[in-house]
From TrEMBL:
Composition bias, Acidic residues: 411-420, 652-671
Signal peptide range in chain numbering: 1-28
Biased composition (Polar residues): 423-432
Keyword Signal recorded: yes
Protein name as catalogued: CxC5 like cysteine cluster associated with KDZ domain-containing protein
Species in which this protein is naturally found: Pleurotus ostreatus (strain PC15) (Oyster mushroom)
Region (Disordered): 382-432, 644-671
Keywords recorded for this protein, A-Z: Signal
Domain CxC5 like cysteine cluster associated with KDZ, residue spans: 172-295
InterPro entries named in the record: CxC5
Amino acid sequence: MRLSLLFNLGLIVLTICFTFGLLPCAAAMPIEDQFPSILFSDFAEFISENYGSEVTLSTVLLILFSLTSNPDLLNLHAKQQVAGGSRKWSESITGWMTALARAISARLGDEATSSLFLPEIDVPGNKSNSEKTTILAKKFNKLSIVLKLRPYNKSGVLKRKLRPISNALIQPALVICPSTMQCSTATCNGCALGQNTCERDTSEVTLLKGSECFSHVPVLSGVCSRCHSIFYADHESYKEPGFTGRMSFYLNNAKYLKVGQKVWVDRVVSNAIVNATYSFHASTAAITEFWNESFNTQQSVFQITRRHIWKAFVLEMSRQMAKHSGTNLILEDGISIDTVTSKAFEELGQSGIIDAARTHSCSECTHEYKNVADTIPRQATDPAGVVGVDENSAVPEYSGPGIEQHHHAQDDDDDDDAMDVDSTSSNLGNSDSGEVELVKMVVMDGIVMGPRHCAIDENSGTSYKNYFSAPRFYCVETLCAPCGVVIAWKKFAKSESPTKIVKFLEEVYPTPESKPSYVCIDKACVVLRHIVKQGDWPKWEDTTRFIVDSYHYINHRTTDYICRTWCNPAPLNGSAPNLVTVEQDNSGNFYYKRAFNTQACEQLNAWLGGFQTVLNKMSVSNFDFTIHALLFLHTQWVIAKQQKKKQRNVEESSDDSDDEAGVDIERDDEV
């Protein structure tokens, strides 16, 4: 009976605690105090009496928000003041306030800090740094009293601890409006824009600005009185001659983006969504859940949705890709986001060719042409030997079809079977003109992934009564440089056939001058057979050789004569001088090294596979746009990483030069 009473009493206590919020909650937001509500005249009087006449508004505001943003420090400061036992405890200065004074001084700088002193009273010129800090600490202590940021009353009795100060009362009134102040049409001669939105039609929306949510934000548009173009914050709407509707000119530098009927976001939010998608392989559902759990308070009624996240991703990436290509996306006005996605890929996708990689060239994917191979004495010279495998072991004998022809070629020392791409390089620079001759490699591979698509030809006229599951695209073929820069991609249906591979290469490299010196693909021997059988070898003979990666070559060279003879990725016998280099290790020993990274595409596809579960659920148009955007971002990231590495090497080289010259130069440490 007693246990039952105790149990019931415990339940009652817990119920009361939960009801009145006495127990902690993981999702609860901290209780905040209101912003100090003092008269401006009192605040202005304090500033004029305690600071110099040259003090600026920005300096005063920095001091004000430094005090309101550090309630815990003010609590510690006040507690130590009271504990001192002095009658004038409220005027005493503690180490807490002194530390805040030092932080504010460092933030302001010497010039702005000097404006805080009264020349006749403080006499800062005759004071040490420690004395100046004490003077400032006394001023800030007085200001905290004026602002009523005190946990104790005048008698030293604790009222309650200061809580975080809410900035709700001082949030700015934001207005979403066009960023341009005049019409951009040439015939309008910079006509000023009039407001196009009357008061009763002004729409009020929710704006996500960084991590803050602003409600009831008015959206205004402007209009040109001459051409009647309408200007919004994220696009311009104009009448196209010969078109019944209006066209939208998407602004690449728009400050805000409309992602819903009543929802706008700034570019910080849209960039964060893009970065989360790229860096975390996140789906729209995952980003939506993260955003609502992280940034929405219990008092907030707004919840961002997956459609908002998806639209923000599409609109942000459309602008990034358009800006990089030096153009603007122009579409019909008022179309759905699905149509925007499809049209954006048609306009900016360039059939899967990544625009950021068009002019890329670096030391990892492009080397100067060598006519003579680097060799190490007493190394294996078998043409089937491969660097990294056969330096210290015998090369396996060929045992596949045509073995008699193979032995006959070896006996005759037939150099025509050697991999002599380096001696026929019409796509290289012209040595007679003094240009540097370059050798370029691209790597190609496929990853099994793709969206479902309709297998029925809409124009066939055939009617079907029964349908099974829609087929998927077989794979995505990616083409990249050895450094990791993505050049192009394409969806393959049903199979990764040599016909599709050759057609893909011809689309990316339509002219002999554009063709690379080497194409590395795990099906190079099959592709080479196909090209020869189709009579297309003359198109490639003078410019390109097809090689396989080392893993495929090791497993294939004993059974495939073409692969063994023509597709060696790094021959040991020097028949391909531009595929092998000689390096020196830390002990001074020489060793062979492959000139190019033939695993780059496999590494790319391993990363791309992290998006497979997300991409496979998309429609074809959404899949095309998303994978193109991701590969565009990846290329930008690789290029930016190379530039940082190059800059770091330049700085290190400069430091070494200074050390050798005996010059001592002060530099800020890189954070």
